[in-house]
Design goal:
By secondary structure, the protein is α/β, with parallel strands linked by helices. The chain contains ten helices and twelve strands. It has a seven-stranded mixed beta sheet. Helix 1 packs across helix 3 and helix 3 runs parallel beside helix 4.
Length: about 300
């Protein structure tokens, strides 16, 4: 099922310029001489939570990067995970913030290269949290059988790939990866919400019995006052997952690549990161070996 789902998403993603919402700085100047062989530099991000403030902070960062590389920089938010991968593949984006699973897909499909990841005091990992309503009688993974459940996206690491692996590994049954997404096989019904905030909201509002979400997103939603800790409970925490990387298109000019990487690794606007101890730190492709193992184990290819 996931193979068919990924194919459908990729087919839709070829129109990525029509399915992303854009925030960015500067418009392309008419007749401007191309630098680096492109008119503008595009940074695309997987679906996530946005506020007016966060959009403005990204725009500010884009302006700062534009001054460094000498061409306009735009920031886009993709409508789904594979749209971000396709934007890199087709050259509609040169930089992308991806999830770990969508990153390894981008390496294979678009020649992406890992650059950096958000790190707080040296900690760059996160987890998949299984959450349910605070007063629910669901207290462990076994209790999820026969319930309604929200995954995030077929290509979401902490919202699909890792939680499926945890269920299949820890619960003694003969289900396949695909069957976890078929109504009536394990869950009463299983859906894709489209984003981690959507999954959290679905649980809090009682639209689903439980969901698997990124620990980082959940913590941000609590910090921003969008959700209250009293509205849900965490019934299971996955092992640590390597952080969501920023990846760059491998075939852009090396000088441009070096400027962008240096900019990101030295960017120190505290308000942008939202924490004095959080900054971009370099990360190697080898850190994602665990995710590649899951990809191969469940044959999660398009």
């Amino acid at each position: 099922m996931i193979k068919r789902c990924l194919k459908k998403i990729v087919a839709a993603a070829v129109m990525v310029s029509l399915v992303v919402s854009m925030s960015g700085c500067g418009a392309k100047k008419s007749g401007a001489e191309k630098k680096w062989g492109i008119d503008e530099f595009n940074f695309i991000m997987i679906p996530g939570e946005d506020t007016e403030k966060s959009v403005q902070l990204r725009d500010n960062m884009a302006k700062d990067l534009s001054e460094v590389i000498g061409i306009p920089v735009n920031v886009y938010r993709a409508t789904d995970y594979n749209a971000a991968v396709e934007a890199l593949r087709t050259g509609n984006a040169q930089l992308a913030q991806l999830g770990p699973f969508s990153y390894i897909t981008a390496v294979d499909r678009a020649g992406a290269e890992s650059v950096c990841v958000l790190g707080k005091n040296g900690n760059t990992g996160y987890q998949s949290y299984f959450i349910t309503q605070a007063d629910s009688d669901i207290n462990c993974l076994e209790d999820l059988e026969g319930r309604t459940f929200a995954f995030v996206d077929a290509a979401s690491t902490s919202g699909n790939v890792v939680p499926c692996n945890e269920i299949l590994t820890l619960i003694d049954n003969k289900l396949t990866f695909d069957e976890l997404h078929v109504d009536g096989k394990f869950f009463k019904s299983a859906t894709y919400s489209g984003s981690h905030p959507n999954s959290v909201e679905a649980v809090v509002q009682g639209n689903v019995d439980a969901a698997a979400v990124s620990s980082a997103t959940l913590e941000n939603l609590i910090k921003e006052g969008i959700v209250n800790e009293s509205e849900f409970k965490i019934i299971y925490e996955s092992p640590v997952i390597p952080g969501s990387p920023v990846a760059i298109k491998g075939d852009i000019p090396q000088e441009l690549k070096d400027l962008v990487i240096e900019f990101l690794l030295n960017y120190d606007e505290e308000e942008y990161f939202g924490d004095p101890d959080t900054r971009y730190v370099a990360i190697e492709d080898s850190e994602y070996a665990y995710i590649r193992e899951l990809q191969e184990k469940y044959e999660l290819t398009d």
